[in-house]
Each structure stands twice: as structure tokens, then as C-alpha cells.
Amino acid sequence: MARRAEPWAVLALIVFSALMAWVLERGQSFHQPDRLRPAFGSASWLGYPGGSEVLYLRRVVSFPELPKRAWIVASAVDELEVFVNGRRIGSEQHIGGRPMVVYDVTRLLDVGLNVIGVRSKTTTNQGPAQAIARLEWQGLSAKRVIVSDREWRAEARQRFSAQGTVSWSQKEYRDFDWGPAAVTAPGTFAWRKFVNPDLPLPMVERGPVGEWVWQPNRAASSAGFERVFEIEDSYVRGAWLGVATSGVYFFSVNGIVVGPVSGGERRMGVFDIAEYLRRGENRVTVQVAGNTRPLRVAVSGLVEAASGQLDFSTDARWHNLDSRGPAVLLGDVRHELPALTEQNAVVRNVWWPRFRTKIGYFSITLGLVSLVGWAFTASSFFNRGWRDTRAWVRYAQPFAATSLLLVLVQLIDWDPRNALEWVYPFWLPALSFGVIIAWLACLVAFDYFRQRETVGRLQEQKS
Amino acid sequence: VTPFLRRTLMLGLVLLTVVLRLWNISKNSITQDESTMILFAQGVLERGYPFLTQQNAEFIISTYELVPFPIAASMAVFGFNEFAVRLPAVCFAAATCVLIFQFGRKLFDEWAGFLAALLFAVLPWAIYWGSNCFYPSQVAFFVLCTTMVVHRLIEEEKPKTWVFYALALSFTGSYLSWEGTGFLLPCFFVMILVLRWGRFQWMLDVHGWIAAAAMIFMIVAQLTFRTVLRDPYLGIHVGRSEVSFATLAFKNVSFDPYFYVTGLFSEAHITLAAVLVLGLLLLAESRALRFLYLFFGLVILLLTAFLGYYALRYVYLTLPTLVLASAGVSVALVSKLTAPRSKTAQTFGLAAVTALHLTIATPWGLTPIESADLLMEVRPYEMRQDLSGFPFRGTAQALKDRMRKGDVLIVQAPFPFQVYTGLKGDYFLQSSLATSVFFDHKGPRYTDKWVANPMLRDKAELDDVLMKNSRVWLISAPDGASRQSIGDDLYAYFEQKSKLVEETADGKLFLWERPGMAAGDTVSQ
Question: Considering the entire predicted model, what is its pTM?
Fold first, then answer.
């Protein structure tokens, strides 16, 4: 390569390759090309007529029966809170963006009148407060969708009635002096600002499924269960695990331990496990312990893969870790229908999952590419100092170009993995190496031909 | 560069600085800190020195002593409005921009000076403080003056007499704008020692000693005055505003060694940070860079380790140094990469570097942090241009429109309220010790720390006030912080009893009315 061997640079290139291979090996996980984002369908963005900093939206709906499944998807500018029948079921804020939420409200809706309330406030200069919502209700035989539209009533400040004892979001409140909401549009480039909800819509739509399981000894205070399944697809769009139990539990996916988490039989904590799965065999274990007896546990597992959904919820294919026999099935979880709730817990024993996110990959690759570029530079600098900058400029060129390319990709928020799924997860190093090697090859070829030309010219002169 | 072109460039930069700061100068309400300065400035207009009145007693300023004077001068000309009170900050920003240009020229070359001043003109953080009448804009100007004088002291073989007095004068300006700049003295001492190593004759200069004595006298006098006046003899709870002296902050549980580093190098400052890292390679050969890096490093170190509280604005005074170092490194790197090739390549390189900086370091440029899906991180509000600010103005205006004679006011942030309405309020509601309170032995009662309004501590005291009056207002702005200090229970209690008259994003105006009572009636006691 060029005129003088650069031991530093060669060493750095080898280290870079080894590091990259190691990171890829450790971090090999499924790519999620496009995060599943709930759609609002025909729902409209709503605001207070004339605009306001705070927005209260209220919709009274009537249902003939208790729902089989019901959920709300909502979003707003900057901040939002969602209420059902006077109960605040959650809030999310994302200053400068569009927080998006999904809530399982199956157990919160009544037969007859129900009130859905949304409060939103804007703390940025993105215009007045605006919100959008969609409620899906599935009865035994019918299905209804309530979307935010002009039917919703709007107010610009908090309201009470009955000497402050009845709040605006309660059923008893009469909104006769509230006007209809105005249909608005929250500005351009909103798509960049949406933040995915914590609770995944596919899980909420499907609801908790699976069997309650325990080990043969029903009085046991602890038990562990395992399920092994194969994924043949090249990518997944999402994967989640929901756990309901009255004990405290840990779970692990391919050796990555999450927990401890305090469980509940009436609620199913949902975790995003997509980044821990891999192509081929996957192993999921759940370990539960508790004092209340008899204990039991139900797991709802769902993988949204390229070829369709894969269900790994608790059933006869789960087996007990102690007896190595199949888990004892205790009844369908759908009979009791625990509410799905978003859950977070500490991921133990591993540091690398966090590097497998998009930003992590970019940072590592960018950092390593830049590092090697600088190794070339430093090597040349220590050899020649500032007097002759040509050599190091040449050697650093491909690395600088690759770094700039990666920075550009990052800045414009374009994820090439979407277009290069078939080479994932190798696209990033492949792209980097491709650019670098091609460039270096060009340099070498250029030097070679120039040298040949010079030699030829010298020979001509000699002759 | 011809003198004409230089002057034109400088004029253009100043114009850009001023226009960007004036653009939305009145858009946001004044902040709590700004309102304090405005009230002191009103004191200057009234009696010639900065003071404010607390319960008929005079409270003389004991920190930011020089800040109210330019505000008062502006108010004398333009009256009270957001533009008038913030105009001095704009002027200081423009003057800082000129100094950066000159200092950059001196340290590096014309292009570095231009790039540094341009960066200062467009950086969102600089725009925020350049249109805010609290101290940072003023202190950044004085600190830059002081830094330039120190640089001269280091570089001159035998420093001239006036340099020592100029140092004392500019440091006094800095110190009386914010006493936290007292940390600059040890910092400058170390810098002079390190960068003039072996040339110690400056220590024997009698004028140096006189200047040092003047500075130390000023510091001791100010600290004594502040300590005597501010010591919370009868106060409960100590907060940020009670800090008077350096402490061993690294022994506190709240010690955060990365606070300033992460804050300074987030948002639009990412390219500055990257360039500064590259600049480490050039330290060996550039004395100017060693000067700037040493200053920056020492200030961050001292403020992190010895100042008991953290706030990003404390290090705003390093921004001119930061942009100077960044511009110097950028220009040096371009020169290295293109030299000794054609001038065209160099000009192209400089233009590319300037464009790269401008692409990131402007409020309207690319926002890498947003693009990188890291929006959930807490982003420093001072560096954001999209926030709508505090709710004081709207809430105060709503109250003014609806108030009647005899109404009682419970005010949670009295200073901004006083600035916008001229009223101080009657009570302060707090069931916790979120902010410090003082014991008034004449009452006897506890009072708030701002205007000495009596504090209502629980439902019984609140009910007592409600029983004796016909209409009681609660100005809960900012609502989040007010709710925290009032306490959830007491807040909900008043919320249920009263009517919400006005609500903004972070401000609520509640009115409690005694049923069947005419306005102005008072219940006999």
C-alpha cells in the first residue's frame, strides 16, 4: 500500500475487524425495520375553537354490553393525559414532539354510558394544544370504533360541577356548556416527532392469551418454566412477552435476565423482547416465587415476524424446569382477562443489548471507523510530523469519507436497514468496509499505475 | 483582509447578533430571575441604588450588584416592557460578539475571529441569554474582557502598568455581575503561572499588588455584606440563592462531575465538542489554544468541584472561550489539511467548515439529537428555542382584568406578579418546605422569602383566610412548582372549593367566592 508500510494502521485495521466481528457476534439480534406504529384511521386532530394552551376533550359513548376487548390509542402535541370514566389511566409527555399512548381499557368500560377524556397541553411554540384519539371496542358480536371528530366536546380549562366534587372527566358531569371541538392539523413533519407507545398495539389487540401454569406440586412456593421455539424469518417487526402472576418473577430470553418484577394476577406486565431474540432457536424462561399460595403464572408471547405472527404463550409446550416435565395447565387466562400494562425492569448480566439499538450500532461503527482513520493519521504524523501531510491525508481519506457518510445517514434519520434487510445485520460494517476497501484499492491502483508510468518513463529516458 | 472589509464584517456580525436577539424579545414572559432584577432596577430609578421593599423594609441588593443599573437606564428611556428590560442583555451580547471577533483575530487569524463571532451570534444558547435580562449576558462580556487582559498579561514580556488596573477593573465588573466569577481568580493565577513559567517578574510589580489588593478588598467587602445581609438567621431551609461561598462540593451526595460537560456539549454544541476533541492534537503547537483550553478546563473543574449547586447558566461565561477555541481549531485543521496547496482549496475548506458549523449550531439548523431519536432525554431548556416560556404574564393579565377592590391574593411567585401588576399579593400558600421561609417576630408568623407575605401552612390557616374574606384568588404559576410547594392535599382542597378562571399551559388562576356576598364585603372578626 503506497510508499511505506504503516504498521500502526495495519494493526488498527485488524483490531477494528476483530472488534466489529465481536460486537456483531455478541449483538446479533433481529432487526426491526419499521417499528409498529398504531394508526388512527379516520380520526381527526382536535383543538379548542380559536386555540388554547390547554385542551380538554370529552366524549360520551354508550355500549350495550361489557367489551371482550377495548383499547385506546391517543396522541397529542407535547403532553397528554387520558381518562376513562373519571379515572386517569395514564399520561405521557414529549416536549417538542408527539407522545403516543396505547391503553388497554377493557376492564374500565361499563355497560351503558362511558366517558372518554383527553387532556393535552402544549409547552412549546408548536401552536395550540391538539390531540387525536381512537377507541376500539369489541363486544361479543359487534365491534365499534370511536374516533376523535366533531362529536367530541372541547373546553380550554379544567371544569368541575356540584361544588367541585364532580370532575369534568366523570360520567356525572354535564357538559352542556362545552362546545364542539375544532378539527385542526398539527403542522408538517409531524411524522418525525411521533414517539412510539410503550404498550404495543398487537398485544393489546390480541389481549392476554395463554394458560395459567404451575408445577405438579401446587403448594410449591417457586417454579420455573421454559419454552424453546424457532424463528426462521430474516427479521421481526416486534416481539413481546407478558407475564401475570401473584408472585415475584424473573424471566430470561436467550440468557439475558430481566427482573425481578413484582407481578399481579389482575394485570399482565408487557416487555419488549425483540432485541433479545435471534434467528434460529430461542429459549425463554420464567421463574416465579412468592408467599401467597397456590401460585400460578401465565405468559403471553407474541412475535411479529416477516412471515406472520408467532405465538409462544404458555401451553403444553412449556415445561417445568424442576421436573423437566410439561407444565401443569390450570385454565385459560382469557377467562379472567388481566389488564395489559406497560412494564420496565432491570436487564441483568449484559451490557451489550443497549448497544444494539440503532444509535448504538451507529456510534460503535462510526467510532471505530474514525478511530482507525485517526490511527492512520497518528501513525503518519509520528513518522513525518506536520511537514508532509500528504500521506496521512491520503490514508485517512476513506475513513473520513465513511465517517461522513455514516454521520449523514444518522443526521437525515434514514435507516438503510429498511432497504437492506437481506444483508442485515451485516450492512453497516459491510458498507463501511466496502467504502474503505474500495477507496484504498483505488489509491493502491492509482499508485501502482503511476509508479509503472514513472518507471516506464525513466526506462524510456534511459534508453 | 482590508480594514474596510474587516469593519464591514464586524458590523454585519453585530447586526446579526442584535437582530437574532431582538427577533422574539417580547414573545415570552419574564422569568422569576428577571423579575428580581427588574424590581432592583426600579429601586435604582427610585432612589439611585438597587433595592426592593419587603414589608415596608428596604432590602438592598447583595448579589448581581451591577446588573440592575443598565436595566434601569433602559427603563428610564423606554419605560417598563420586555423589550426595554432585555435590551441591555442584547447590547452586552453585541459587545461580546465584537470582542470575540477581535480576540479571535489576535489569537489566530481573521477567519477564526469571524467564525467564532458568527458562532456566538447564532448559537441558540447565546441567543437565549442574549435576550434575557438576568446576569449571564453581562457576566460573559466582563469575563471575556478579563480573559483578554489576562492574555495580554501572559503574552507581554514586561506587562504595562495599565494592564494590571484593567484586570482589576474588568474583574470587578465580572464579580459584581455574579460573584461566582470569584472562581476566576485562582483560575487566572494558575494560567499565568503555567503559561509564563520561568518569567516571574510580574509578581514583583507593585501595580500588580495594588490591583490584587483592590480585587481582594472588593471581594471581602462584598462577601461580608452579603453574608451579613443574607445569612438566614431566622430562615428555614437553605436553597441555591443562599449560597455565598465556595464549598467542597465534591463531598456532597449531589456531586455530579459530568454535569457541565454533558450540558455544554449537547444539542447544537455537538460540532463544537467534536472540533475541541480534534483540537487536542494541536495543543502542542498552538499557544493560543493552550491558553483557551486551560481557561475552559480550569473553570469547569472549579465550578464542578467547589460550587455547591449546579446550573448550566453558571458556565455560560465560558461560551466565548468555547467558540474561540472551536473556531481556532477548525481553521487550523483546514490549514493543515490544505497547506501548502492552493488558496482556493483553503478558502473552500474554510467555507465548508463554516457551513458545517452553521448546519448544526443554529436554532433552525439540523438538530442531531432530535434526529437520533433521543428526544426522551431531558434537553437543557436554555438551549431550546421552541419552548413557550413561563406563564406569568398571561396569568397576571387575566387577574388584572377580573380583580375587584377588596379581593385577597395568594401568590406563589410574587416577583413576576409584582412586575406585571404592581401588586405584591397578601398570602403565600405552602405546606412543605419547598422554598425557604422566614420567621417574622412581629407577626409572629412565617413569611415567604420574596415579599414577606404571610405563609398559610395548612387547611386551618387557609380556611381562616377564606372565612374572613369574600373573594380569594390563588395565582398558581408556574402550576407544577406551585402544586409541589402547596402540597397535593392542600392544592386539591382549594381546587375543589374554588373556580378555575383561567388556565394556561403551566399557570392556573383560581377564584374562591363566598356565596351570597357582595364584592368588597369583609366578614367581621
Answer: 0.78
